[in-house]
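Protocol step 4 of 5: obtain the predicted structure for the target chain.
Materials: sequence only (see below). No template structures provided, no constraints applied. The aim of this step is simply to have a reference model before the mutagenesis design in step 5. Sequence pasted as it appears in the construct record:
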Amino acid sequence: MQKPLVLYALCGSQRMASTNRRLLEALRDNAPVGVCVEICDLIGELAIFNPDREGENTPALVEEFAAKVRACDGIIVACPEYAHGLPGGLKNALDWLVSRDEVPFKPVMIAHASHRGDFALEQLTEVLQTMSFDVVHDAFLRISLLGKSEDAQASVLAESVENRRLLSALAKFCAAINRNRI
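Step 4 output (structure tokens):
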């Protein structure tokens, strides 16, 4: 029997009520049997990246974050666009991983909770590919929640569960991970 897949989800928005977090929560809550999605709550607490603090000077929280990245089978990233770019906290978290060995060839899925934000999506893809993540383009998920009330967001997410959009994206991502595990 194959061990369950563990997916670690990074949310670029640090607001607990953000649309991107809601999308990650929907993926977590609707993951198929054998797939566990854990949402990272460390990003907002990480020290600002400084190369002088790498190696033996790496903060304990950064080591904890890196250990979670190492232990998972794949990463899901959801982030908004701030001023035509990536949110600083998410970029900071990724910067801490650049010179480490947790990332190369780690599968990553991008989820996006807005009908806009293409600048950030392009930047995110470029950063992830530069870091040698294996971006699984077929698993890209875009569900527009931005600007909707909580009830409307819940309705859109329920419809995405019903029409299997969430499950389809996760299935494509998990299939890519499983192909690489063999």
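Step 4 remarks: The helical segments are 19-29, 60-71, 88-97, 118-130, 150-162, 165-181. The mean pLDDT is 95.
Proceed to step 5.
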